[in-house]
Design brief:
The chain is α/β, with parallel strands linked by helices. Helix content is 34%, strand content 25%. It contains nine helices and ten strands. The chain has helices at 47-54, 94-98, 100-104, 110-122, 138-150, 168-184, 196-202, 231-236, 239-251, and strands spanning 5-16, 19-31, 36-40, 62-67, 70-71, 79-82, 156-160, 188-192, 205-209, 216-221. The strands form two sheets. Strands 6-7-8-3-9-10 form a six-stranded mixed sheet, with helices on both faces. A four-stranded antiparallel sheet has the order 2-1-4-5, with helices on one face. α5 packs parallel to α6 and α7 packs across α9 (239-251). It is globular and about 50 Å long. The chain starts with a strand and ends with a helix. 34% of the residues are buried. Bound molecules: adenosine-5'-diphosphate.
Amino acid sequence: MDYILEMKDIYYAYHNMEGETKALEHISFAIKEGEFIAIVGPSGCGKSTLLHLIAGLLEPEKGLIKLNGRYLRDSSTSIGYMLQKDELLEWRTVYHNVLLGLEIQHMMTAKAKAKARELLGAYGLEHFADSKPSELSGGMRQRAALIRTLVLEPDILLLDEPFSALDYQTRLNVGDDIGQIIRKEKKTAILVTHDLSEAISLADRILVLSDRPATIRQTVNIVFETPHLTPLERRNAPEFKNYFNLIWKELNPDE
Ligand code: ADP
């Protein structure tokens, strides 16, 4: 079986003057290309640390990480990162924000620019290409941030609480919107969220982490009888509540 990402028995601890903070222990999982994985767990358990390790921003103290069968440091697999804040630059137009990553990585080719225009068009931002980010709604800003990541054609998309700065109603719509774009672009994605409903509405599989140091308590495959439901449709499907109750119990064993 070929995996785009393999994590084997990962251990990571932060070290500072006060001592050691164990963040992750015995973390093992593997992901196939095109899968959408969500990681849920209590606040402070180590979810962002896990994404930092996959992005190569931190190195595991024990265990190994492979991307497309090669050790992370030797790998050419590209990783895209989308954060809670959209980090759009207010003095640049939407189009020039979308090109920012290409500029930084010296990848500004005519083909890449055409791809940026194409994605802006495909996802309803063509009329805002010359606008400043302040003229966009929260949802449109998040869409622009996703397009900025997608033009770099990442093999794996890491999403760290990307909707949590939005109010509840916007969050539902933006989650639906972004989820559908990621499916259409057939991206492999790993979403970190504390919002269980969000995870169930978006993912093929959910990893439930324990309190810090995080271990994987449970892995839940999310399967709906009706295939290809949108995230909003999933929320109204009969299986949704069952998954919610199952994982809620796992996250709150004392209740
Ligand atoms: P989550 O994303 O699940 O909220 P994090 O991965 O951000 O959790 O953090 C896991 C634990 O590691 C937390 O207890 C946090 O306080 C600690 N931590 C995070 N970054 C650092 C750091 N740079 N130095 C020391 N401890 C850290």
